[in-house]
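ok so i was messing around last nite and threw this chain in just to see what happens. nothing serious, just curious
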Amino acid sequence: MTNIKIILASGSPRRKELLAQAGYDFDVCPSLSDEDLEPMAPSEYVMLLAKKKADEVCNRIIAQDVVRRVKKLPERFVVLGADTVVSLNGRILGKPYDYDDAYNTLNSLSDQTHQVYTGVCLIYVEGRAKTSSSFFEKTDVTFYPVSHNEIIQYLATNEPFDKAGSYGIQGKGGLFVKGIEGDYNNVVGLPLARVYHELEDLISEE
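result:
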C-alpha cells in the first residue's frame, strides 16, 4: 500500500471509518462546495459532485486557507472527494429533507431493488503539479417488504436522516436488506478496494 497522506474532503463518519480500517494516514477537511446540479444520470451526478468537493478542498489547501485544519502537510498528498446517492428507477434519492421525505423514500424502496452510486475523485498533488482521476461504483441493493410500522420505528432511531436513501446498511437499516450485488463498502459510502487500486495506479503513473 502506498504510504501517502490523504485529505478526505468529507465529514462523513462512515468514510473516515473505512479509511481508518484500511490503515491510511489521513486528515479531514470537509468541502464547502455547493451541491446544486442540473438533473443528470446518477453516475455522472456523483462523479461531478465528488470532483467539485475535491477541487474546492485542494484549492483551499494550496492557498493555505486551512493551515489550522491540515497540519504538517507533506510535499505530496492526495485529496479524496466522494459523493453517494441512491437511485430507484433512475430517480436520485439523496439525504432526506425531512421526516415525510424519509418515510416516502423508505416506503418506495420496500420490496424493490435499487442502486447505490458512489463517485470518487482523487487529486494527486506533488509540489505544484496536480493529477486527477474520477470514477464511480454501482451496487444493487434489494429490500425485503417493509411495513408502515417498521418504517415508523426506524425513523424514531434518527438513523436515516443524514444518509442517502434514508437508511444505513451498516446500522439498523441493514435489517431491511435482502441482498446486495456489488461492493458492500460502496453502499456504506466509499468503494474502498476500488479507491486503493485507483490510487496505486494514479501515483505509479507519475
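not much to say yet. The helical segments are 13-21, 42-62, 99-109, 148-155, 184-188, 192-204.
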